[in-house]
């Protein structure tokens, strides 16, 4: 950076008054703030014993799930929009011809590498049929890297686990499909 | 013979106490950091293999074990000898300082131990006539450790970090010395015990008589101990590392312990020089060598309590105030603290010259007047310093400075 670079905008700071220059009032201010927090209520959650409740599960971005339709079939139509939207390239789909009459394709295999996922929620934004959603499950651990690659069965089982606590996000808008 | 035994016992007490204290101060620091941020802090590690958590008091033990098993990594490019010597220098100096620092007063005479006639002084090197100079000489050795660490690392970041730190440490030696000189003038002695005795016998702590000296000393002590708001030696968030960037494992631990010991030294000095040491009105008595057991124990407790309070203040300060920028740091040292220290020295010199009872070594008149005068001078000097303070917040590069 050159000192006289015209692209650098310098901001004029407000001048310090006498109290500011005397330091002491500001020092006391800082110290009282600190001291107040010393005794104030704590916000720590002791994790394994106490489980944190995400404020609004509908906007929380935790582990993925693949939604099922009313016949218990996977909703996904293998359009690859989520895989395309994913900035981490962690969704891998093999789409084949669907055995059911109401759609052309369905995913034969659907894996998400949860280790690479950054939980940005782009996939759920991109999905035209609300098949992929992020749940409020947050303790995502595994003993190996392979264990962290979630396949279709696992993602569908996450749906079974969470469908009661968190209804499908599209239902409040009338649902899709 | 018995003096040797007594000295060895005291050394063992001191070193053991200090090392344990340093370990638990780390825990305390983490707790205070957590509490000020509305967190709970370390509370898990208790007695191993049981469910007793003991509020996390086992944490220092676990940290120590972790450090023992940590990989000792020496980067390829460093000067191995100096690289290893630097933390040893800094830690040895930090520990040796405590030889001259009393951690209590005296034990009563009727100890009942064969061959011990004198009352035992609770200080490794009691009656050390140049105690204060010794403490200062050793604490400035820290600069060598810092420079050595930065130089031997053979990395430009460490080197610049080392230079930066040594500039800071050297700059703040002066206000530190000036703040201290007032106290030395008043007690007329370079012996730390005498400084305490003088405050104990008059009952007026130096802090009340020398407010400016107190402020300059405390500020300089913070900077010397490299604590926030003056922790430019590392300040891990903003600068690319300090002098110990290349260090890891045990050698880093030695630097960190030395840093904590500096804080403890600073706290001890602040308490001894300005807060009356072991003296507390009506609790500890004021005689030099004649104590009851109760008083002797109270003196140790009072001294340690005061030191702990100062250390807690050190730690609270870390989370209260923003860090100084390096040019502001230097401005503060040379343009504010140095003049203030000189004012203090002059005021104390006048007070001692004209208001002192030389025979009794205390004020010749009511200390209330002296206090009023000194506080008046303090407020005036402080205001003047504030009005003409050169501290600037603007950090844009100045063209005229570059083009020259
Ligand atoms: S949340 Fe983001 S990163 Fe994770 S799978 Fe979806 S699009 Fe990819
Ligand atoms: S965007 Fe939705 S429907 Fe398309 S492939 Fe992904 S999950 Fe399936």
Oligomer: heterodimer
Strand portion of chain A: 5-15%
Following the backbone from N to C, one meets helices and strands of chain A in this order, namely HHEHEEHEEH
Q: How is the largest sheet of chain A built, in terms of strand order?
A: 2-3-5
Count of DSSP helices of chain A? 5
Largest sheet of chain B: 2 strands, antiparallel
The most extensive contact between chains is: A-B, 25 and 26 residues
Number of helices of chain B: 13
Order of helices and strands of chain B: HHHHHHHHHHHEEHH
Query: Average pLDDT value of chain A?
Result: 86
Alpha carbon gap, first and last residue of chain B: 68 Å
Per DSSP E runs of 2 or more residues, the count of β-strands of chain A stands at 5
Q: Which term fits the overall shape of chain B? A: globular
Query: Could you estimate the helical fraction of the residues of chain B in percent?
Result: 55-70%
Report the β-strand fraction of chain B as a percent range. under 5%
Strand order of the largest sheet of chain B: 1-2
Helix-strand makeup class of chain B: mainly alpha
């Amino acid at each position: 950076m050159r000192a006289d670079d015209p692209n650098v905008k310098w901001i004029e700071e407000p001048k310090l008054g006498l109290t500011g220059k005397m330091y002491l009032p500001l020092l006391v201010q800082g110290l009282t703030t600190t001291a107040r927090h010393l005794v104030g209520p704590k916000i720590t959650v002791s994790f394994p014993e106490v489980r944190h409740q995400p404020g609004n599960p509908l906007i929380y971005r935790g582990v993925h799930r693949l939604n099922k339709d009313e016949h218990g079939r996977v909703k996904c139509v293998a359009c690859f929009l989520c895989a395309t939207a994913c900035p981490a390239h962690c969704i891998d789909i093999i789409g084949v011809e669907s055995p059911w009459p109401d759609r052309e394709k369905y995913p034969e295999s659907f894996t998400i590498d949860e280790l690479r996922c950054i939980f940005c929620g782009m996939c759920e934004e991109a999905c035209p049929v609300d098949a992929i959603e992020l749940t409020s499950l947050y303790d995502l651990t595994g003993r190996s890297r392979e264990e962290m690659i979630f396949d279709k069965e696992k993602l569908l089982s996450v749906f079974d686990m969470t469908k009661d606590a968190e209804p499908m996000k599209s239902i409040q808008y009338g649902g899709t499909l | 013979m018995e003096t040797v035994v007594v000295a060895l016992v005291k050394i063992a007490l001191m070193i053991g106490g200090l090392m344990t204290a340093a370990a638990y101060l780390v825990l305390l620091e983490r707790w205070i950091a957590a509490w000020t941020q509305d967190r709970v802090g370390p509370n898990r590690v208790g007695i191993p293999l049981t469910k007793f958590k003991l509020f996390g008091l086992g944490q220092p033990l676990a940290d120590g074990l972790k450090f023992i098993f940590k990989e000792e990594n020496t980067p390829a490019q460093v000067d191995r000898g100096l690289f290893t010597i630097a933390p040893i220098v800094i830690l040895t100096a930090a520990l040796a300082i405590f030889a001259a620092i009393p951690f209590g007063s005296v034990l009563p005479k009727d100890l009942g131990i064969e061959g011990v006639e004198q009352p035992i002084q609770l200080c490794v090197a009691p009656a050390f006539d140049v105690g204060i100079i010794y403490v200062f000489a050793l604490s400035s050795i820290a600069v060598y450790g810092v420079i050595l660490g930065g130089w031997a690392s053979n990395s430009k970041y460490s080197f610049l970090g080392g230079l930066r730190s040594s500039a800071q440490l050297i700059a703040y030696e002066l206000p530190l010395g000036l703040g201290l000189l007032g106290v030395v003038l008043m007690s007329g002695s370079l012996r730390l015990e005498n400084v305490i005795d003088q405050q104990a016998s008059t009952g007026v702590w130096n802090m009340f008589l020398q407010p400016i000296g107190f402020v300059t000393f405390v500020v300089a002590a913070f900077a010397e101990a490299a604590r926030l708001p003056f922790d430019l030696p590392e300040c891990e968030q903003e600068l690319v590392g300090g002098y110990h960037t290349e260090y890891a494992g045990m050698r880093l631990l030695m630097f960190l312990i030395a840093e904590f010991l500096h804080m403890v030294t600073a706290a001890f000095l602040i308490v001894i020089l300005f807060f009356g040491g072991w003296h507390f009105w009506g609790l500890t008595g004021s005689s030099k060598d004649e104590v009851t057991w109760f008083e002797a124990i109270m003196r140790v407790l009072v001294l340690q309590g005061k030191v702990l309070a100062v250390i807690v203040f050190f730690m609270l300060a870390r989370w209260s105030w923003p860090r100084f920028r390096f040019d502001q740091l230097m401005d503060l040292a040379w343009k504010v603290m140095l003049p203030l220290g000189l004012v203090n020295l002059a005021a104390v010199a006048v007070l001692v010259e004209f208001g002192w009872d030389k025979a009794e070594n205390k004020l010749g008149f009511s200390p209330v007047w002296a206090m009023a005068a000194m506080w008046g001078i303090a407020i005036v000097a402080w205001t003047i310093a504030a009005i003409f303070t050169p501290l600037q917040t603007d950090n844009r590069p100045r063209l005229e400075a570059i083009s020259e």
